[in-house]
Amino acid sequence: MDPNASAVNQNCSVYEHTETARVLFPLFYILVFLFSVSGNSLVLYVAWHKQQKFNSTSLYLVNLALSDALFALALPGRIAYYVRGFDWPFGDVACRLTAMVFYANTYASIAFMTCVSLDRYLAMVHPHRLRCAREPRVVRGVCALAWTLVLLANAPLLFRSTLDEAGGKRACMEYFSLEGSPALPRLLLLACTVSYGVPLALILGCYTSIRCKLSRAARQNPVTDRSGRGHRANGIILVILAAFVGCFSPYHIAVAQFAARQLLRPPLRPLSCHEKKAFKMALQVTVSLMNLNCCLDPVIYFFAIKTYKKRVVRLLRGCQLASGLSSSATAEHSSSNT
């Protein structure tokens, strides 16, 4: 290894536009926090308050909302981190827990989005086959298995420090150790393929199959094309696909291309300072996009559960009516006192 290149890399600061980031990232994550907490809390409240009999789709979506709500609870720590200029004040254990919650939410969201797509595919393309796979008892088992696999896959984050101290600041989850292991690029490519590539292929396959069935049904009997059930199922998967591609693709593509370049790099040639800065900037932007998924998931629930909109409207009208009655009672009490 070239000692001059090593010295340059040791003195390389990947933080650029820090002052801008101290304003933009906190504002962005405050909005994500507010939308995520309000949207997913509303989903959970409506779902549990009515004590409805959950079908397979609503079970998957409630688990998706629960994952997003738990993730939102970790956002205030990240907001404080960015306000302090990439300085984590809460210690190593809290940083590990934040990393665990972040990645668990990411891949739980991917898992449940894929499950919803497969569920709609079975309901529309094979309504009479594998009906047992859509029974609530089986779906609860699938959800438990998904949570177990996600937590086990991310558990190693609890046993490895994700803090990096430099320049008097403690950076949390900033990916400084990506050059540490020769096997890491291969593991990253494998992880991107299994946790992103396979789910994306399944969702695309489900969307294409439902679309093809609707087209065949319309050609054979134009009257069936007026039924909204098939088109609603197709629309649900289209919304999932758009959210999946928009939120998760940029991050996984950035990580995959970085890992591929690492594999093609000569063994003794380290990353240049410019490459580190470019990768760091790409991660900051793509991770922010990925975190937007917790705001978009309530939209999926809105499209997937046809009674959800009515329940939300009734709930808001009830709150408005209660507020009006309270104001009237207050006014009457004030007039009687005078």
TrEMBL record:
<keyword id="KW-0297">G-protein coupled receptor</keyword>
<dbReference type="GO" id="GO:0008142">
    <property type="term" value="F:oxysterol binding"/>
</dbReference>
<feature type="transmembrane region" description="Helical">
    <location>
        <begin position="100"/>
        <end position="118"/>
    </location>
</feature>
<keyword id="KW-0391">Immunity</keyword>
<keyword id="KW-0675">Receptor</keyword>
<dbReference type="Pfam" id="PF00001">
    <property type="entry name" value="7tm_1"/>
</dbReference>
<dbReference type="InterPro" id="IPR047160">
    <property type="entry name" value="GP183-like"/>
</dbReference>
<feature type="transmembrane region" description="Helical">
    <location>
        <begin position="187"/>
        <end position="210"/>
    </location>
</feature>
<dbReference type="GO" id="GO:0016020">
    <property type="term" value="C:membrane"/>
</dbReference>
<feature type="domain" description="G-protein coupled receptors family 1 profile">
    <location>
        <begin position="39"/>
        <end position="301"/>
    </location>
</feature>
<comment type="similarity">
    <text>Belongs to the G-protein coupled receptor 1 family.</text>
</comment>
<feature type="transmembrane region" description="Helical">
    <location>
        <begin position="138"/>
        <end position="159"/>
    </location>
</feature>
<keyword id="KW-0807">Transducer</keyword>
<keyword id="KW-0812">Transmembrane</keyword>
<dbReference type="GO" id="GO:0002250">
    <property type="term" value="P:adaptive immune response"/>
</dbReference>
<keyword id="KW-0472">Membrane</keyword>
<feature type="transmembrane region" description="Helical">
    <location>
        <begin position="281"/>
        <end position="304"/>
    </location>
</feature>
<dbReference type="GO" id="GO:0004930">
    <property type="term" value="F:G protein-coupled receptor activity"/>
</dbReference>
<feature type="transmembrane region" description="Helical">
    <location>
        <begin position="27"/>
        <end position="48"/>
    </location>
</feature>
<feature type="transmembrane region" description="Helical">
    <location>
        <begin position="60"/>
        <end position="80"/>
    </location>
</feature>
<protein>
    <recommendedName>
        <fullName>G-protein coupled receptors family 1 profile domain-containing protein</fullName>
    </recommendedName>
</protein>
<keyword id="KW-1064">Adaptive immunity</keyword>
<dbReference type="InterPro" id="IPR017452">
    <property type="entry name" value="GPCR_Rhodpsn_7TM"/>
</dbReference>
<feature type="transmembrane region" description="Helical">
    <location>
        <begin position="236"/>
        <end position="261"/>
    </location>
</feature>
<keyword id="KW-1133">Transmembrane helix</keyword>
<dbReference type="InterPro" id="IPR000276">
    <property type="entry name" value="GPCR_Rhodpsn"/>
</dbReference>
<keyword id="KW-1015">Disulfide bond</keyword>
